[in-house]
């Protein structure tokens, strides 16, 4: 229902009056010579000027102006709807890429790196616990090492197959996976030869030489290739993330501009109708304006939510997953260095330094040696526990503690460091026993899974590391799910509101335009 004020001519009378005024203005005063040439045309004026005037007079009419504003509103509505549609399709494609390709590839490459380190550690443990051709064998550690070795080998084979499928179409990745597969076959051949020699009486020395060759291949070629895959896939994720966030920012700005222009045109049309028809409100246009406001708010919320879920998946969750996956792979390599230290006696100094280097990658402390590392760890960790902002260490654990986001994550990360500190103290026990000439006791302490032995403490450390990693994996999956939900839930609602706004605009103008027909 419209509300009228004052007394006004009908639209038909206004139109006739306006036409009469234009006619009167167009007729020149009588008796003015030279006002027209023969044929009714002014001298020197081309026909195009007359056509332009007729067009201007046509579009100067009230119905024409209403149709022009309506067309502009419909055009803006369509442009905004198209923008939201393209934004939704692009975000969906981004989620498909990061959740279906980049993240799984990165975690598969990290899993491959870890399994390679585990294989090498278990191969060393087999040789340490096997005795002389089975004589004087440490049965429990030997059985566990054989089982873990087989599981790690199957994991490597599975991850290589996964990465080979994922690399199809990427020449560089395909080449890397092929090289990894070939080198892994060579590695298995060397380990197989080492185990075969170890099964012969007096064959331990030959077995150790074969193992050293396998470890050299692992360190020089296989692990760098697996780490290159981790970096390449993580970089691909980062590139996709940066591009998606930039695109969403541009789409949000464009949507706001288009939405404000649409609202401005609807407000102008409301004012114009009130002025021309002497009516205060047009209910249909009011409803169209409300729908446009809803569409702009919901569409903007969908874009902002998509951007935030992308950030949460990448920065809050997956950055931690990558750091913790690296930490786990480094941990297994450090654990292997302990076994290598006991097995390859002529290279003990190098393996001791390698263990310290990997410890620094995990929890870096300045100016410490293998003998002073424990004291430095205790001092810096005590400072952190007193004040969580006082982080005097570096490494993968620092990266995780700098990125605490989710409930229970800080407590789980702190347990990881505390179990790591216990494992570090075990390493000093192993080296002390060796220094005292107690080689067998050192081996038993290193590879035993009995309570309060090194491998048992290593397992507790890995359990704590898995817990904090799983927290971040879970929230990554949640961000992906909610990010997809923002696209599938909010954008269709925004599109529906825009369709309603366009339809209401057309319907609200139809009675006004009908008044000029007849």
Give an account of the 3D structure.
- This protein is mostly helical.
- It has helices at residues 11-26, 47-59, 62-129, 139-166, 171-198, 204-277, 283-343, 348-362, 373-386, 396-401, 409-435, 439-447, 454-514.
- The two termini are 24 Å apart.
- Mean pLDDT is 87; it is low at 1-41.
Layout of helices and strands:
Layout: H1 11-26, H2 47-59, H3 62-129, H4 139-166, H5 171-198, H6 204-277, H7 283-343, H8 348-362, H9 373-386, H10 396-401, H11 409-435, H12 439-447, H13 454-514
Feature tags:
518 residues; mainly alpha; 0% strand; disordered N terminus; 13 helices
> What's the average pLDDT?
87
User: In total, how many beta strands?
Assistant: 0
What percentage of the residues does DSSP assign to strands (E)?
Answer: under 5%
Poorly predicted tracts of residues: 1-41
Evaluate the radius of gyration.
38 Å
Quick overview:
With 518 residues, this protein is mainly α. Helix content is 81%, strand content 0%.
């Amino acid at each position: 229902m419209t509300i009228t004020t004052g007394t006004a001519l009908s639209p038909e009378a206004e139109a006739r009056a306006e036409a009469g005024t234009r006619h009167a203005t167009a007729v020149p005063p009588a008796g003015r010579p030279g006002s027209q040439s023969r044929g009714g045309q002014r001298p020197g004026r081309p026909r195009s000027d007359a056509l332009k005037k007729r067009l201007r007079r046509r579009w100067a009419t009230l119905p024409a102006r209403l149709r022009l504003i309506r067309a502009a509103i419909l055009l803006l509505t369509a442009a905004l709807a198209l923008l939201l549609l393209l934004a939704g399709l692009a975000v969906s494609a981004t989620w498909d890429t990061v959740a279906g390709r980049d993240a799984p590839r990165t975690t598969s490459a990290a899993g491959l790196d870890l399994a390679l380190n585990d294989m090498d550690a278990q191969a060393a443990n087999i040789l340490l616990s096997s005795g002389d051709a089975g004589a004087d064998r440490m049965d429990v550690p030997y059985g566990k090492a054989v089982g873990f070795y087989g599981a790690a080998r199957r994991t490597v084979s599975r991850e290589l197959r996964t990465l080979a499928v994922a690399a199809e179409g990427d020449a560089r990745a395909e080449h890397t996976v092929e090289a990894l597969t070939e080198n892994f076959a060579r590695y298995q051949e060397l380990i197989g030869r080492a185990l075969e020699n170890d099964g012969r009486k007096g064959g331990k020395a030959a077995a150790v030489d074969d193992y050293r060759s396998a470890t050299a291949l692992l360190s020089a070629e296989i692990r760098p290739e697996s780490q290159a895959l981790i970096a390449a896939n993580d970089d691909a994720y980062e590139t996709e993330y940066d591009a998606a966030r930039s695109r969403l920012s541009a789409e949000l700005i464009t949507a706001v501009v288009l939405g404000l222009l649409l609202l401005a045109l609807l407000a102008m049309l409301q004012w114009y109708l009130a002025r021309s028809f002497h009516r205060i409100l047009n209910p249909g246009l009011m409803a169209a304006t409300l729908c446009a406001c809803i569409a702009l708010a919901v569409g903007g919320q969908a874009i902002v939510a998509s951007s935030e879920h992308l950030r949460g998946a990448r920065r809050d969750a997956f950055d931690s997953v990558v750091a913790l996956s690296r930490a786990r792979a480094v941990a297994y390599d450090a654990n292997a260095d302990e076994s290598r230290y006991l097995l390859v006696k002529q290279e003990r100094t190098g393996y001791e330094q390698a263990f310290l280097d990997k410890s620094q990658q995990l929890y870096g402390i300045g100016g410490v040696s293998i003998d002073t590392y424990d004291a430095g760890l205790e001092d810096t960790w005590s400072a952190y526990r007193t004040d969580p902002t006082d982080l005097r260490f570096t490494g993968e654990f620092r990266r995780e503690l700098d990125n605490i986001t989710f409930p229970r994550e800080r407590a789980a990360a702190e347990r990881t460091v505390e179990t790591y500190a216990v494992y570090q103290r075990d390493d000093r026990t192993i080296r002390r026993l060796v220094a005292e000439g107690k080689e067998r006791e050192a081996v038993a302490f290193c590879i035993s899974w009995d309570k309060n032995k090194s491998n048992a403490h290593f397992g507790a450390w890995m359990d704590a590391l898995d817990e904090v990693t799983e927290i971040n994996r879970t929230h990554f999956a949640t961000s992906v799910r909610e990010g997809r939900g923002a696209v599938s839930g909010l954008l269709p609602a925004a599109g529906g509101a825009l369709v309603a706004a366009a339809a209401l605009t057309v319907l609200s103008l139809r009675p006004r335009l009908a008044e000029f027909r007849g």
